[in-house]
Design brief:
By secondary structure, the chain is of the alpha/beta class. About 40% of the residues lie in helices and about 20% in strands. The protein has two domains: about 5-250 and about 465-480, Rossmann fold; about 275-460, Rossmann fold (3-Layer(aba) Sandwich). It contains 19 helices and 18 strands. The protein has a nine-stranded mixed sheet, with helices on both faces. Helix 10 (about 280-290) crosses helix 13 (about 360-370) and helix 11 (about 310-325) runs parallel beside helix 12 (about 335-350). The longest helix has 16 residues, at about 110-125. It is globular and about 70 Å long. It binds adenosine-5'-diphosphate and alpha-D-glucopyranose. The site of adenosine-5'-diphosphate (ADP) has 17 residues, from helix 1, strand 13, strand 14 and helix 13. Alpha-D-glucopyranose binds next to helix 1.
Amino acid sequence: MPLSVLSVASEAVPLVKTGGLADVAGALPGALAPHGVVLTTLLPGFPSVMAALPRAKVLHTYEDLLGERARLVAGKLGDHPLIVLDAPTLFTREGSPYADPGGKDWADNWRRFAAFGRAAADLAGGMVKGRKFDLIHAHDWQAAMALAYLRFAPVAGSAPVPSVMTIHNMAFQGYFDAAIFPRLGLPRSAWGIDGVESYGGVGFLKAGLEAASVITTVSPTYAREIREGEFGMGLEGLIRSRGDRVRGIVNGIDTHEWSPASDTHIAQTYTARTLAKKQANKRALEAEFGLEPGDGPLFVVITRLTWQKGMDVLVEVLDHLAGIGGRLALLGSGDQGIVNGLLAGAARHPGRIAVKIGYDEGLSHRMQAGGDAILVPSRFEPCGLTQLYGLAYGCVPVVARTGGLADTVIDANLAAMKVGAATGIQFNGVHYNALCAEIDRAMAIYHQPGAWELLQKNGMKADFSWAASGAAYAALYKELTGKA
Ligand code: ADP
Ligand code: GLC
């Protein structure tokens, strides 16, 4: 019998995506399948998800799920089983999954994702005939209440279900006013320091972390970093108290979607052996962004425009980057202040700095294919995927030494260059001087004959597929369920 796991996430490619969580949740079923694990994904019924399920089979109807009518319906995520919580009053809305079209978090997010967690707990507890699960795996705060409901208010008569809670980002905790507690449908015993209470309010992620059999996060370095205040964001004590029940498993990438040898979004496919062909993508990208063509390095940035990603510091270094002959193509969306700073920089340096505000999956591929280097100056980064795509595309990552960036890029220091192991450039401290110095270093290495190509080829040869991490999750599931 295969191991049956319910993976609970608020986004998964190709149905709904705001960031890396979607890439990971979408790839996990395929990563686990070779290990005898059937992963069923549970998603909220956002409009793009419902649109992909025209004739879905109804598994269960709720008359009153935290006050709402809702259904659980079955579908497919690629070749893998999918269940969707269809609750139009909660999820059929304009805007992003979490915020209104103006970018403000929905005021009833607590109810939307508590209902989602309640439904996940019901499923994991065996409420739907013919759907049995050996383990539940919840991702981030939006799914975390599933584990609290399983712990404090499980389906009557159900056996305990082992659980994994994965933190993709400690900065988002789903923290709400204590006044919502009586409306969650939890017993009074759930209110407490080892339950759902967090600094006087209700903490969804916190509740999940307290209840989980094992906590994972998406890189070994971030698993260590969140033990300390700066990265733990108030939950560092809890993390420390869970000891070796906190593990780091680095994300993989979907090598079908992200391979320069077969990418259908790019002008010219290439491999490490035909690297010279990458040049055609650089020319195409310069044209697409209206940059002046040139042989000097073309930096790219593909990101949410936030403080986490160090984008305020990037704004400050634009003049330096352009002044020393660098060029930059940036794609992103987010904070208005950062957007304004970037647009002003582009206006000061036409032909050298070009910015596209928005979200564009195809363009993100063309940028990895056409760029010489991808800049990732994050203040913290649980894993990071864009540097992994950069490695695969010979778009050398220039990254801050933190979290998954520290774990996945080998810095071009003298020793690593000598033994031919380096894949990119790392720097310490996300501030003006450090970032300028690293851009200078990248420019210098770029102009050393053979050095840049070595970085590119090493990165392209490295294995960031899901093979190793899929095996690590499978081993964890087997450890927790006792099933071989
Ligand atoms: P995070 O999840 O913190 O945003 P990751 O690096 O893990 O960071 O994942 C970001 C994902 O979102 C990557 O797949 C990246 O290519 C994609 N992405 C980010 N911003 C954009 C954008 N503006 N357009 C297209 N893709 C984007
Ligand atoms: C989060 C993190 C990012 C990580 C992604 C997928 O959004 O910010 O570092 O790669 O989740 O795990």
